[in-house]
């Protein structure tokens, strides 16, 4: 896909793509009961992933989570808008989507990696990785989130939260201030009941929200984090990625999230390969500099 394609990538085409994603993708918190404005700087790993549309500029599409200086995790189905990294950017340190502060930073995207076994029909393996063009500098409003090193039992007393800029309600108005809501992790056997999701929730997924639908994610929150506070470690850990669901805030239809701990090996392999590539690149640069210095001194 060349840059010339951007001329044809109109605002209306973008709207059509959003509508295709809307029925399944979770994107926003149901503010009627459980969600509210997040405090400034409360979730410093929350990212806005945005696509460029001719005549409109950059438009928020999905959320994401910063895990180190160059890697953002999100949902694979978000990339349906475009797989070309040239159309994307990541924005860090945002509270209001359209009011950037002195600490807000932007980065173009170098590469997008979608899980090779992602199934758009079932949302299985709904995970993707964005590599930033340049490493991001941390500050009080931009920080990475920790990843769980191993499976961990999350009891009923473990506080877990979702965040995002998604719609206020199903087919509802847009939200510009980052929202947060506390959610309950719902047991797999309950979520897969015939009158809930009827077995559609695989072991690579889990449900969270509330049985009555008081708290949920919605269109626009896709790719964002579900994080839990582990008291023994005194840290928040990224446990899930907002994936899909049946509408927003419907009883017995909570949000479904990627079970991130199942993708430790996938992530480890990608991160190691990128570290190796960067190290080789740095060595080549040093060798070139050394060669120039030697030849200039002759």
Folded structure, characterized:
It is a single chain. The protein is an alpha+beta fold. The protein has helices spanning 11-21, 188-191, 264-297, and strands spanning 36-37, 46-53, 57-66, 71-74, 88-92, 105-114, 128-132, 146-147, 160-164, 179-186, 205-209, 225-230, 235-244, 255-259. A six-stranded antiparallel beta barrel has the order 9-10-11-14-13-12. A six-stranded antiparallel barrel has the order 2-3-4-7-6-5.
Q: State the helical fraction.
A: 10-25%
Number of strands: 14
Q: How is the biggest beta sheet arranged? A: 6 strands, antiparallel, barrel
Biggest sheet: strand arrangement: 9-10-11-14-13-12
Which structural class do you get from the secondary structure elements? alpha+beta
Query: Topology as H/E string?
Result: HEEEEEEEEEEHEEEEH
Q: Compute the average pLDDT.
A: 84
- CA radius of gyration: 20 Å
Strand content: 25-35%
Distance between the termini: 47 Å
Low-confidence stretches: 1-13, 15-33, 276-280
Helix count, DSSP H or I runs of 4 or more residues: 3
Form type: globular
């Amino acid at each position: 896909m060349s840059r010339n394609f951007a001329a044809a990538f109109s605002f209306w085409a973008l709207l059509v793509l959003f509508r295709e994603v809307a029925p399944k993708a979770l994107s926003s918190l149901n503010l009627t009961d459980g969600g509210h404005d997040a405090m400034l700087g409360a979730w410093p790993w929350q990212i806005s992933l945005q696509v460029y549309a001719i005549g409109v500029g950059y438009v928020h599409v999905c959320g994401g989570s910063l895990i180190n200086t160059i890697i953002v995790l999100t949902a694979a189905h978000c990339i349906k808008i475009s797989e070309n990294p040239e159309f994307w950017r990541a924005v860090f340190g945002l509270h209001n989507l359209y009011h950037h502060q002195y600490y807000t930073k932007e980065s173009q995207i170098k590469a997008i990696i979608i899980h090779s076994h992602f199934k758009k029909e079932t949302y299985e393996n709904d995970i993707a990785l964005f590599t930033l063009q340049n490493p991001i500098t941390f500050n009080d409003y931009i920080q990475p989130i920790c990843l769980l090193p191993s499976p961990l039992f999350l009891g009923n007393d473990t506080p877990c939260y979702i965040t995002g800029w998604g719609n206020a309600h199903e087919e509802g108005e847009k939200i510009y201030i980052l929202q947060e809501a506390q959610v309950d992790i719902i047991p797999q056997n309950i979520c897969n009941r015939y009158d809930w999701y009827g077995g559609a929730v695989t072991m690579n997924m889990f449900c969270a929200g509330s049985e009555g639908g008081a708290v949920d994610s919605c269109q626009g929150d896709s790719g964002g984090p579900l994080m839990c506070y582990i008291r023994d470690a005194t840290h928040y850990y990224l446990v899930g990625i907002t994936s899909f669901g049946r509408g927003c805030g419907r009883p017995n239809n909570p949000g479904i999230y990627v079970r991130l701990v199942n993708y430790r090996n996938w992530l480890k392999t990608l991160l190691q390969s990128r570290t190796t590539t960067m190290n080789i690149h740095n060595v080549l640069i040093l060798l070139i500099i050394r060669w120039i210095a030697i030849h200039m001194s002759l």
